[in-house]
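Hello K.,

You asked for the raw outputs rather than the summary table, so here they are, unedited. I folded two proteins back to back in the same session to keep the settings identical. This is the first:
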Amino acid sequence: MAHRTLRSGYDRLVDRLNRFPQGAPPSALLYRILQVLVSDREAGLVAQLPIKPFTADTASRAWRLPLDETRRILDELASRAVLVDIEQDGDMQYVLPPPMAGFFEFSMMRVRADVDQRLLAELFYEYINVEEEFITSLFTRGETHLGRAFVNERALTDGDRGLHVLDYERASEVINTASHIGVGLCYCRHKMAHLDRACSAPMDICMTFNTSAASLVRHGVARQADAAEALDLLAQARDRQLVQFGENVQRRVNFICHCCGCCCEAMIAARRFGHLHPVHTTNFLPEIDDDACNGCGKCVQVCPVEAMSLVSANDPRRPTRRAARLDTSTCLGCGVCVTSCPRAGALRLAPRPERVITPVDGTHRVVMMAIERGTLQELIFDNQVLRSHRAMAAVLGVVLRLPPLKQALASRQLKSRYLAALLARREKAAAPAHQ
């Protein structure tokens, strides 16, 4: 008689992760990573958890375990940063983060003895940098992505050129307005250090903010920092021509990394898939003054995504003279090249022809990503994720503020008469009254 093979906890967790708009393509390497981070029983329990923040009571009912045992398991998972715990109004809520930026990074943001970090580094490198399906899925699916570049504020000195810099475009503003700040090891360079490939850029410099920072500091994944120290680290990062890469939201940014072009996965993806815009750019572009540029090449050397190059200046009096050229389709607009240019006026930032739109908050971004990736129905109608009418209303509220094309995409995916009626009602209300 044929027997039925039972699905492991790891199988169920992989399925659960891929209900996120940003998932983790199944792979033997992914299973090995999960086996290092959690037990099979823990994986099976985590697979039953909602994506949205939940309480211990919710987990207890889902797991059918006593509340005390549930709390112990949740706290253990939070101590290893598999879950993030959030204190809100005196109660503890928990959330299952995606792999990136999430529990992949958190596992390497400190030196640990409870897991084999060298093995993890090797597995991460193979899964992300060699196997490629994960990095391709993470950075090239859809138009809305996890992270964005922040403009180097030292390059914003040319006030008469119509530059309009919003607060959320400044890393310093994120630091100054954060409720909590945590500093940990750079996941990318720590990973590469275990492979003997890390560069000399600072490692103890990865910043988390707000509720994420509070949880990571509480469990020793990051150390607590104040705004003064974080601003000093920001200055050090800019001195080293590192790019600020952070969460792609306007409000309550949860992380900012200081990225080099050699180790950091976001910059590597931006080089490899630049035409697909895997990293949201700033609202600025470098502008080259051909007369002032002497072709020294320093802008080419510091550009992390190889958007700058040297070409012939076509100067008949000096046939060997070279000048900088910019590939606007791959440029992040970070301004690192501007601050590195030794020639006054040769490089300066100018506004992009069309403003880059940044999602307002995490809910807005996740909904946009879900629509573009065809998973919005999973986000809304998964009973484990959004059980309350309040949560559904919040998500639908974001949908109703989207442009018409994305509303149509959302409506088709949901196949919901209720959403279609809401969209139709809004369209009718917006139409001009007939005389």
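The second followed immediately with the same parameters:
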Amino acid sequence: MAAALDPAIKSRIAALPCWRGPIEVAPLPGGMTNRNLLVRDGGGNYVARLGEDIPVHGVLRFNELAASRAAHQAGLSPEVIYAGAGVMILRYIDGQTLSPEEIRDPARLDALIELLHRCHREVPRLLRGPVLAFNVFHVVRDYAATLRERASRHVPILDDLLRRLVLLEEQVGAVDIVFGHNDLLASNLIDDGRRLWLIDWDYAGFGAALFDLGGLASNNGFSPEHEHVMLERYFGRAPDADLCRRFAAMKCASLLREATWSMVSEITSRVEGVDFAAYTQENLQRFEAAWIVLDD
């Protein structure tokens, strides 16, 4: 498990009071808002998540910790072993991170819907202490303000994007409030061969079920047919025209959030090896494609 690692980081991890004897530490791939490490001690394997608050993205670690603990109690996420300033230690899940192609497998849909139902309905019953709310329309407006303040190269297109955001908000209308994960990328789902796990609760908060559904579809390339079946399974009824319209608007909003998240990351992120400019362009193109469908 040997790998190049900053000795100061290893010393920091080794000094935590949760270990049973000497540890081995190696980097884990992935993570756009955290540094993730695999840690092994005499008691097993663990994931160390290193990350401070990121106010510009609404990531506050007290909220992530509360959501992670409640999600574990609900049977969705690994156990939190230790939490301290800028660090969280969780049990390691021995499984395979999913790809968008695997997410789209119709055989997985029932398990995904069950996961979402438990996140939305059971996690809020188990939460302790203060937690955040997540409103995609506020998030995008706040990103736009940050981009203007920091003279982003994307400022010339913000007025048009915000104009369309208002139309999307009107199309979505009133929503039922659930506790959402709000970052349903394939990389946040793990299959251990028996069940699915949902990880990384950085953006969790009370908000709209439609946002998680829209994010699941948009992040993983669902076809219109797959979206229709997903809505039917989630709501327990065939989606009518009104629900389909509201879902399509929220899917557009989720893509706009992803694009503006990346715009802000272009000028604020210290994560190495990520081409945020390319990710921005990819999500703007996907937003425009979804907008054309919605506008029809």
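DSSP finds eleven helices and ten strands in the chain.

Happy to rerun anything if the numbers look odd on your end.

Regards,
P.
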